[in-house]
From TrEMBL:
Identification of the protein by name: Glucosamine-6-phosphate deaminase
Organismal lineage: Bacteria, Pseudomonadati, Bacteroidota, Chitinophagia, Chitinophagales
Domain of life: Bacteria
Gene Ontology molecular function: any one: identical protein binding
Pfam short name (any one): Glucosamine_iso
Keyword Secreted: no
Amino acid sequence: MELKIFKDYEALSLAASEEIIRVIKTNPAAVLCLATGQSPVLTYQLFVEKIIAENIDLSRCTFIGLDEWVGIPPEMEGSCQHFLQNKIFKPLQIKSSQIHLFNALATDVTEECKRMDRIIEEKGGIDFMLVGVGMNGHIGFNEPGVDINKYAHVIELDETTKAVGQKKYFDKPVNIGKGITLGLQNFLEAGYAVMIANGNKKAPVIKKAMEEEIGTQFPATIMRMHKNSMMMVDEEAASLLDKP
Ligand code: F6R
């Protein structure tokens, strides 16, 4: 795993947006999986601006959802789907046939997970994943202690994820007990994975991700097991790392 440290959030976001564009220019039919959350907001804004300014063709790309809050309707502000639609798909006029997101209202969520895994397989696998990292080290909704062998699955959300999620994404109380997420096997099989993190509050998280023993007790350590991964952080998030 490569580690890149940027001066600030702006520099990190610019580099991350350029990384997505590089992937697409190298493979115009790329299968992309892009996380939601606060960390990538500026990355996606810069990505969208550059795609439009340079008239880059995305018509052959496929977009796969990383995760979703079980039971939260897609149109509700705070859902992952709402975020991706508003920040990426609508501004870039991505066709719905190119987008495959979890249906968090599915009556059979196990079947929904199988459906997503089948889509990924049919598309030949995920080429590029951009993920954030939770305060508990989660990747997607792969919470501490998750089974590393899992592909898409439904998971009981950790207390930290529920508390942070309620506060950060929803303006009224919601019932967010479970998440539906791609698994760490989907992550490990992705051709290339980038994790981004910024700000002082992520400094202890990045320290653990980089220095703790690799294992699902802190899922972000799995980044270091990936065959082709890059950790992109700003100086604040890197501030607790042992200096070389
Ligand atoms: C969101 C997701 C989560 C976030 C993580 C960090 O799709 O999968 O794992 O990436 O919770 O969120 P932020 O970026 O808001 O700190």
